[in-house]
């Protein structure tokens, strides 16, 4: 109900023009100044891998990368991303690090229903970009804002550590940072 009310009000408000790059595509968008990033991505851009789980920034299902940093898109105004580079899970399809992470999640059963998986993958991707050889503690810290209601987390942590090991062993031309 909240999203419907917000959408109705957004239609009657003045708009602002923002320009950003979403999944490698530069573009301009007219938005209501108070429109949340999660709603821009899901409703206007149809990037539904960005999930709405709690609307209170507790679950991490709406995690995206903004200029390489993980953010919960339910807590960011879309207007704040003017001039930024954004990545959603849809934009990581050809990213070699994310591909290695997906394979490790699959092999070690680091997912079940899949609702939290996009946010987990993006958080893990950001960690491995900045810290290619994380410890278990580092992985747990990087994922601490992402909740999973299906797994016991250990398989997710193990999958990220496996991906890190594989990326370190891979030739440098195939591993992206």
Account of the protein in words:
The longest helix is centred in the C-terminal third of the chain and has 16 residues, at 154-169. Helices cover 39% and strands 14% of the residues. The protein is built from six helices and five strands, in the order αββαβββαααα. The protein has a five-stranded mixed β-sheet, with helices on one face. The protein has 177 residues and is α+β, with helices and mostly antiparallel strands. β1 and β2 (25-31) form a beta hairpin. The chain has helices spanning 2-12, 37-44, 96-107, 117-130, 136-143, 154-169; strands at 16-22, 25-31, 63-66, 69-72, 85-87. Residues 1-5 have low confidence and may be disordered. α3 packs across α6. It folds into two domains: 2-91, Beta-grasp domain (Ubiquitin-like (UB roll)); 94-169, DNA polymerase, domain 1, CATH 1.10.150.
């Amino acid at each position: 109900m909240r999203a419907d009310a917000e959408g109705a009000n957004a239609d009657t408000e003045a708009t602002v023009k923002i320009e950003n790059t979403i999944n490698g595509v530069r573009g301009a968008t007219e938005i209501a100044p108070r429109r949340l990033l999660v709603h821009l991505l899901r409703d206007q851009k149809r990037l539904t891998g960005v999930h709405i789980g709690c609307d209170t920034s507790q679950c991490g299902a709406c995690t995206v990368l903004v200029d390489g940093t993980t953010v919960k898109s339910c807590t960011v105004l879309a207007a704040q991303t003017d001039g930024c580079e954004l990545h959603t899970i849809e934009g990581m399809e050809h990213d070699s690090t994310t591909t290695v992470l997906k394979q490790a999640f699959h092999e070690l059963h680091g997912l079940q229903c899949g609702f939290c998986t996009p946010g987990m993958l993006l958080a893990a991707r950001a960690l491995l970009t900045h810290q290619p050889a994380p410890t278990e503690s580092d992985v747990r810290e990087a994922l601490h804002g992402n909740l999973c209601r299906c797994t016991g987390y250990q398989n997710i942590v193990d999958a990220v550590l496996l991906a890190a090991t594989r990326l370190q062993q891979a030739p440098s031309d195939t591993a992206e940072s």
